[in-house]
Amino acid sequence: MELLKNRILKDGKVSEGGILKVDSFLNHQIDVALYNEIGKEFKRRFADEKINKILTIEASGIGIACVTAQYFDVPVVFAKKSKSKNLDGDVYTASVESYTHKNTNQVIVSKKFLSKEDNILIIDDFLAKGKALLGLIEIIKQSGASIAGAGIVIEKGFQTGGKIIRDMGIKLESLAIIESMSDTGLTFRE
């Protein structure tokens, strides 16, 4: 997706530790027009799938998932990173290690929102080592639902996550795959 790649080149910043900061348009301050184009592109790439729910993980994936859900006319379910008083009843859980935050969270989805009748599209902002995606896949498996695929805005192609997910036979569509990244710049996979 050229629009996204151009925006990453223009406004993205590589910081210490291999972190790509896109907080000026993707995951802190949000460019709603760009999100809209991202949602349209995910709809185009998964148009042949009979998706009835979108699953993401809090917090950065929620906005992208919501905009994308408009094009599929389906609800969004998001995995919470902590149990709250308004989360009642039985839940699905999975452990997710955060590459960016260097911690592990138990993510939680209420069982009343996922079932074996669902065909789920996973949406998230980043894919690096694949831990968040693997956690969401585990939750979907616990529910007995089907996985239509996963849509990722930015994939770090030089890390292992994309290969792990693709080797599982899951349709993975990343809108921008970064081939290499350093403080002097980055390149995309074609």
Automatic annotation (TrEMBL):
GO biological process, one term: xanthine metabolic process
Keywords, alphabetical: Cytoplasm, Glycosyltransferase, Purine salvage, Transferase
ATP-binding recorded as keyword: no
Transmembrane segment boundaries: none
One Pfam family in the UniProt entry: Pribosyltran
Chain positions recorded as xanthine binding sites: L20, N27, K156
EC numbers, comma separated: 2.4.2.22
InterPro entries found in the cross-reference section: PRTase-like, PRTase_dom, Pur/Pyrimidine_PRTase, Xanthine_PRibTrfase
UniProt-listed HAMAP family: XPRTase (MF_01184)
Subunit structure, interactors included: Homodimer.
Name under which the protein is recorded: Xanthine phosphoribosyltransferase
The organism of origin for this protein: Qingrenia yutianensis
Lineage: Bacteria, Bacillati, Bacillota, Clostridia, Eubacteriales
Gene: xpt
